[in-house]
Amino acid sequence: MPALRPSVTHFLALAGLLLLGTACATAVAKDAAASDARPVSATDRNHRPDHQGLIVIGHRGASGYRPEHTLESYRLAIRQGADFIEPDLVATRDGVLVARHENEISGTTDVATHPEFAGRRTTKVIDGISMTGWFTEDFTLAELKTLRAKERIPAIRPANTRFDGMYTIPTLAEVIALVKRESRNGRKVGIYPETKHPTYFAREGRRLDGRPIAISLGAKLVETLVAEGFTDPKRIYVQSFEFGNLIELKKKLMPAAGIDLPLVQLYEDLNEARPYDLVYNASHGSDMQALYGGLTGQVEGGLTATTRYGALATEPVLQWMKANYASGVGPWKGNLLPRLPLAPPIDANGDGKAELAGQGTALVHPMLAWALKAGLQVHPYTLRAEETFLAQTPGGVTQSVVAEAMQLYGLGAQGFFIDQPDQGVLAREMFLELSRVEP
């Protein structure tokens, strides 16, 4: 792992953020609770053409306020001011892309309450992890449309459970149609799709009857974007945790379709996680040079089944990525700004639950500076307003999600994924106001 280093910019941003503290965190909580009461047009003013390239990405929509990956979650994110909404994409049995965080859907739908589908419950291994439940590749789109979405983390977001059973699983085409409808009065909203488990869907996964799934999520994504007439590179980022998937999009799939869209390489935990496409391809004797080209020469010892994300977050690799396929990177915020455990946890918002359990270290991972130097966009994930996801500053002040977002902007990130887009928009307004230099 590269050595962590403190950043001068970080300390400057941190000094200003100390003023936000617990009072701001309380205001964020109240603002979140009142979100339903806002007029839907209240954030139109946030779409002036003066954001200086800073974007807000609605993570799975406005998933802090609605069950994730539903049209209502996406719609609310747009109306709260998100510039992009993020659909995670998996495939149905009949090859249609739908928006779910995982292809296993027991945690996000009411499938378990449908006796007609009881026989489809099974156990599969997805990217090396055993999962038991129901999987999108075993359902046609028509069958999935009989299900209804539910809140994924009800213990943390009990208010969202009042929407359980109200919304269907949307297709990518329906998400695009929503974005087109909501893009009005000169405002152009974009999408930030992620291909989920592309190696599993294309090469490793099996349907319930044992047949290979054999669906290229990248090819289906390109096909759908072209069919829907939604290929403006200013309104799309395509992201993936796998490397080969994005390289194939850049070198083969997009040129064949006559389009060129910005690609963002996602990073799981730099210290522990491994890109699954490397695990699969290296362990199955694939020609790594043919799949990854010059990337193989940027990592000491080459690309192997044990290569971790940290080995792919070095300055030479980031420069190679920029030169060959990537427009940006999406690192986990916990790697960029490491935290230490706070023991015992504290009750920062006064609700009687001690859920704040981390403290910042005043360190910034050098990946951030290397990526910016290479000319890559940096869009960290995921910002969330609830206390369990927040932390104290090194000085012991509780940092709100607004303060966290402002800190990332101050460090040079051009955007971030956030479950409460209205708070991200507020952070951007505050950051730009504080950054303005009077003539």
Automatic annotation (TrEMBL):
Catalyses which reaction(s): a sn-glycero-3-phosphodiester + H2O = an alcohol + sn-glycerol 3-phosphate + H(+)
Keyword Signal: yes
EC number in record: 3.1.4.46
Residue ranges of every copy of the GP-PDE domain listed in the record: 54-394
Signal peptide annotation: 1-29
PROSITE patterns: GP_PDE (PS51704), PROKAR_LIPOPROTEIN (PS51257)
Cross-referenced InterPro entries: GP_PDE_dom, PLC-like_Pdiesterase_TIM-brl
Alphabetical UniProt keywords: Glycerol metabolism, Hydrolase, Signal
Family: Belongs to the glycerophosphoryl diester phosphodiesterase family.
Record protein name field: glycerophosphodiester phosphodiesterase
Organism expressing this protein natively: Lysobacter arenosi
